[in-house]
């Protein structure tokens, strides 16, 4: 049973650049949520995708956008990167918008 | 919106002792409360969860209790082992409204010393 996978594992960018992170949900899951986890803090909800649509969004600026594909995988895009965007980006999947979410290992983004 | 507070921020216990982590939430509409364990360099791992229609749930050495009146819930780990050392996060969600958006606490660093 394949768990949630994310790529890449690590990424280094400079201020102003754009980045795309990828997520494949757990086998059989169709809902993907993205979270940002700054060092020493709990994850913060960015947005959730279901049926290829953004269903819920947290308090993040429009620089953060996403997409879900027909195979349920998802991408997180961040434009005009700021130093403060440095964090661990986590993807979580669930079935049919259910509350139980399973997390991937995350992508560590460093913005210089 | 929902706010979740978690205490303590760090917890040191001797192997074999019990560990208790407490969380409070602000929105009485919250109805789902998971606990996650996060080891260094890894993503959060779901270890136990409880829904608002249940007061207590147990899974081997781990148990969670929920007090809806006081709006707090706790994680209990008995007979702690060195492999229990990790950061533990509580979270709350309003399933009927937020489609599963999880609001996390700040985390508790648990250190189990042999």
Describe the protein in words.
The complex is a heterodimer of chains A (112) and B (114). With 112 residues, chain A is an all-beta fold. Chain A has strands at residues 5-7, 10-13, 19-24, 31-37, 44-50, 53-57, 64-68, 74-78, 87-94, 102-103, 107-111. Chain A is 0% helix and 51% strand. In chain A, strands 2, 4, 5, 6, 9, 10 and 11 form a seven-stranded mixed β-sheet that branches. In chain A, strands 1-3-8-7 form a four-stranded antiparallel β-sheet, with no helix packed on it. With 114 residues, chain B is mainly β. Chains A and B meet through strand 4, strand 5, strand 9 and strand 10 of A and strand 4, strand 5 and strand 10 of B.
What is the element string of chain A, with H for helices and E for strands?
EEEEEEEEEEE
Biggest sheet architecture of chain A: 7 strands, mixed
Counting DSSP H or I runs of 4 or more residues, the number of helices of chain A is 0
- Percent of residues in helices of chain A comes to under 10%
Spans of at least 5 consecutive residues with low confidence of chain B? none
Q: Work out the number of β strands of chain B.
A: 11
Main sheet: strands, sense, barrel of chain B = 6 strands, mixed
Helix content of chain B: under 10%
Coarse shape of chain B:
globular
Q: How big a fraction of the residues of chain B is strand?
A: over 45%
The gyration radius over C-alpha positions of chain A equals 13 Å
Range of strand content of chain A: over 45%
Terminal CA distance of chain A reads 37 Å
> Tell me, what's the shape of chain A?
globular
């Amino acid at each position: 049973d394949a768990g949630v996978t994310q790529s890449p594992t690590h990424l280094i960018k400079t201020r102003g650049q754009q980045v795309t992170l990828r997520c494949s949900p757990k086998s059989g899951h169709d809902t993907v949520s993205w979270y940002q986890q700054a060092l020493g803090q709990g994850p913060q909800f960015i947005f959730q995708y279901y049926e290829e649509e953004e269903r819920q969004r947290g308090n993040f600026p429009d620089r953060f956008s996403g997409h879900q594909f027909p195979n349920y995988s998802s991408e997180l895009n961040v434009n005009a990167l700021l130093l403060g965007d440095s964090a661990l980006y986590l993807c979580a999947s669930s079935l049919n918008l259910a509350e139980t979410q399973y997390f991937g290992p995350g992508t560590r983004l460093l913005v210089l | 919106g929902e706010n979740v507070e978690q205490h303590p921020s760090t917890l040191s216990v001797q192997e074999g002792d019990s560990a208790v982590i407490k969380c409070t939430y602000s929105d009485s509409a919250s109805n789902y409360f998971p606990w996650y364990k996060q080891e260094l360099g890894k993503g959060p791992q779901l270890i136990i969860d409880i829904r608002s229609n249940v007061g207590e749930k147990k899974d081997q050495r781990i148990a969670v209790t929920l007090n809806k009146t006081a709006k707090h819930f706790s994680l209990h780990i008995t007979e702690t082992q060195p492999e229990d050392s990790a950061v533990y996060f509580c979270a709350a969600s309003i399933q009927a409204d937020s489609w599963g958006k999880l609001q996390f606490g700040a985390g508790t660093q648990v250190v189990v010393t042999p």
